[in-house]
From TrEMBL:
Protein name: AB hydrolase-1 domain-containing protein
Assigned protein family: Belongs to the peptidase S33 family.
Taxonomic lineage: Eukaryota, Fungi, Dikarya, Ascomycota, Pezizomycotina
Annotated GO CC locations: membrane
Domain of life, source organism: Eukaryota
GO molecular function terms listed in the Swiss-Prot or TrEMBL record: peptidase activity
Length: 296
């Protein structure tokens, strides 16, 4: 297994990075995958989802600044996270690459695609949305009306508005909604043959950084709206979503796929917020077929 390495950004911040599929004898295409859940998720999520591609691609995964083992030094903005992607692309030595973004990582990936579309050989979006204010409000409404979970209403409002009190408040808010990230029990039973795995969203050693979460949802989300810019994304795009995703529902992915000129939408009928873990075999096949078609 490859070890993680530290890559220093232009402002001195150190990012925790891992590259799967390095081969000095073969120059493989580069794929950079962004994790979701700022301040809690890590490179373990994209490594689990995309690691199987390492025989054909160099798969670069990393803890975004403010998450995991990377420095907790801001700013925690899309602009800064996009510059970090550019720094990693240059560090890897590639002019063009495949970009994948899951959940919140999809927001950053969309912003990157709008600003640096010429760099992209392909774009992969998993369970995401194109408008921050509406998306976060709808996610909160879905949580507060769900019959599957019982939550502290004030705490959930703090989570989705970026006003969590501290790291413990952040942890409690996420822990009480974990069941909603997976498909309902009857759907899981019906899909037993798909060999569902543990959700990738919060894999690995979990640590909570409320400052990253608060910046993401108090500052970034109100300003994030790329709906009118999606038509400018020319990269071949795969949009993936779980039918039972309560956080970023099918309608959000449909909106994105309808607006991007060269987009393919795949709905996973037995999945919640994480098709790579809910229906791993189907996810791997669809992703492999897409990349084989668009990356030469």
């Amino acid at each position: 297994m490859p070890e993680t390495t530290t890559v220093v950004m232009d402002d001195g911040v150190r990012l925790n990075v891992k590259v799967l599929g390095q081969d000095p004898t073969v120059r493989k295409p580069l794929l950079i995958s962004l994790h979701g859940a700022p301040g809690v998720s890590t490179l373990a999520e994209p490594e689990s989802s995309f690691g199987y591609l390492s025989d054909r691609y160099r798969v670069l995964v990393f803890d975004a600044r403010g998450s995991g083992a990377s420095d907790k030094i801001g700013p925690f903005t899309h602009e800064r996270w996009i510059q970090d992607i550019e720094n990693l692309r240059k560090w890897a030595g590639d002019e063009t690459f495949i970009l994948a973004g899951a959940s919140y990582g999809g927001f950053v990936a969309l912003d990157y695609a709008v600003q640096h579309g010429a760099r992209l050989r392909a774009l992969v979006l998993r369970d995401t949305w194109a408008n921050g204010r509406l998306g976060s409000m709808n996610a909160l409404a879905s949580i507060l009306t769900s019959k599957r979970i019982s939550v502290d209403v004030d705490r959930q409002v703090r989570l989705w508005s970026g006003t969590v009190l501290n790291d413990q408040d952040h942890a409690l808010a996420l822990q009480e909604i974990l069941p909603i990230f997976t498909p309902p029990t009857d759907v899981q039973t019906a899909a037993a043959s798909t060999e569902q795995q543990e959700s990738t969203e919060f894999q690995g050693s979990v640590a909570f950084y409320s400052a990253t979460q608060n910046a993401a949802f108090a500052e970034n989300m109100p300003r994030f709206d790329v709906r009118h810019l999606l038509k400018e994304i020319n990269a071949p795009t795969l949009v993936v979503v779980g039918r039972h995703d309560a956080i970023t529902p099918v309608s959000c992915s449909q909106e994105i796929a309808d607006a991007i000129p060269n987009a393919q939408l795949e709905i996973f009928e037995f999945s919640g917020h994480s098709p790579p873990s809910d229906e791993p075999e189907k996810f791997e096949q669809i992703l492999s077929d897409f990349l084989q078609t668009v990356v030469h």
